[in-house]
Amino acid sequence: MIKKCLFPVAGYGTRFLPATKAMPKEMLPILDKPLVQYAVEEAVEAGMTDIGFVTGRGKRAIEDHFDVSYELEHQIAGTGKEKALEGIRQLIEQCTFSYTRQIEMGGLGDAILKGRALVGDEPFGVVLADDLCFGNGAGVLLQMARLYRQFRCSIVAIEEVPKSETRSYGVIAGEALSDRLYRVTDMVEKPAPEDAPSNFAIVGRYILTPDIFQILERTPVGKNGELQITDALREQAREGCVIAYRFDGRRIDCGSVPGFVEATNYCYERFFPKEG
Ligand code: UTP
Q1: Which of 6, 14, 112, 130 to mutate to test the pocket of ligand 1 (most atoms within 8 A of CB)?
Q2: Domain residues of the chain, as ranges?
Q3: Cβ distance 160 to 182 under 8 Å?
Q4: How far, in Å, is the centroid of ligand 1 from the Cα of 36?
Q5: Is 0.90 topped by the overall pTM?
Q6: Pairing state of beta strands 33-34 and 124-127?
Q7: Helix (H, G, I), strand (E, B), or coil: what is residue 222?
Q8: Around Cβ 5, how many Cβ atoms within 10 Å?
Q9: Residue nearest atom 7 in ligand 1 by C-alpha distance
C-alpha cells in the first residue's frame, strides 16, 4: 500500500573518514554488498518500490550502483560471475529510482523536506541506510508497514539503549499500548541521560504521513543548528498521531567503525556460504 521510500544519503559520514572522503558512506560494503543495497532490499520487501534518494555532492556512486553497467555485464557474460549481479539486477527491474539533492547539510528534517518533490502527498517510508536492520522473520520496514495499515499514522522504530547513550539518539516518552507498541507523547533529540524521558531510542526506520512536510516547513531549526525530524514528529505526537514500535530484530549502527565491524562479523556468520 505504501509505495514510496525515501533514503536521505546526503550526510558527510565524518565518523568514517578518510574512507568517506571521496566515497559515500552508504556504499561501504558489508561482506560483498553495499549498505544502501541492503536498505533498498528491505524497502522492496515492504512493498515500497518507488525509491527516492536525497543525495549530495560526491554521492554519484549510488546512482551508478542502481543502474546497469553494460561493459561489466558484457565482460562477465557466460561466466559464473554473472550470479553475483543477480540481486542488484532484480532490484533495478522492480524499482524506479529518483534523485534530488540537498545542497547544504541542514539535518535529517531538512533532508526529508527536500524529498517532498519525490514523495508527493502520500505516506512514505524513510530508511537511514547506515542503520543496518535485520528482522526476525519479516524485515523491520515490512513490520512497520503492517502497523501503518492498522494505525494510519506515523510510525517510528525504537530500540532500548543504555541510558548512558541517549545523547546519540532521539528519545521518546510514550504510553504503552502493548508489549512492543507505544503511543508517543513527547520526544527529545539527543538528550543528556538525566534529561532523557526513557531509554527508548529512535533508530533509522520511519513511516511518515505527508502532513509532516507542512510541519517541517514551519519547524524552527533545532539542536546543533539542524532541522530535526524529531521536532516535527513531536508536533504530530501532540495530536496522538505517532506510534513507536520496538521492532522484532536486530539493528547495527554501521556509521561508526565498531558498529561496522560488528555488522560485518554478524553477516559473515549469518550469510557467508561456508565450504563443505
Ligand atoms: P548521520 O549523522 O548518522 O550521518 O545522519 P552523517 O552526518 O553522514 O555521519 P557522521 O555523523 O558525519 O559520521 C543520519 C542519516 O541522515 C542523512 C545521512 O546521510 C545519514 O544517512 N542526513 C543527515 C542527510 O541526508 N542530510 C543531513 O543534513 C543530515
Answers
A1: 130
A2: 4-271
A3: no
A4: 13
A5: yes
A6: unpaired
A7: coil
A8: 30
A9: 11
Number of residues that make up the chain: 276
Q: What are the grid coordinates assigned to 78, written together?
A: 557466460
Would you state the cell numbers that stand for residue 48, as one nine-digit string?
515500497
| Closest-lying ligand 1 atom to the alpha carbon of residue 106 | 28
Ordered per-residue pLDDT tens for the chain, 276 residues: 899 999 999 999 999 999 999 999 999 999 999 999 999 999 999 999 999 999 998 899 999 999 998 999 899 988 989 888 999 999 999 999 999 999 999 999 999 999 999 999 999 999 999 999 999 999 999 999 999 999 999 999 999 999 999 999 999 999 999 999 999 999 999 999 999 999 999 999 999 999 999 999 999 999 889 999 999 999 999 998 899 999 999 999 999 999 999 999 999 999 887 776
Q: Which residues line ligand 1 (CB under 6 A)?
A: 8-16, 25, 54, 102, 105-108, 110-111, 128-130, 255
Structurally, at CATH architecture level, domain 4-271 sits in Alpha-Beta Complex (3.90)
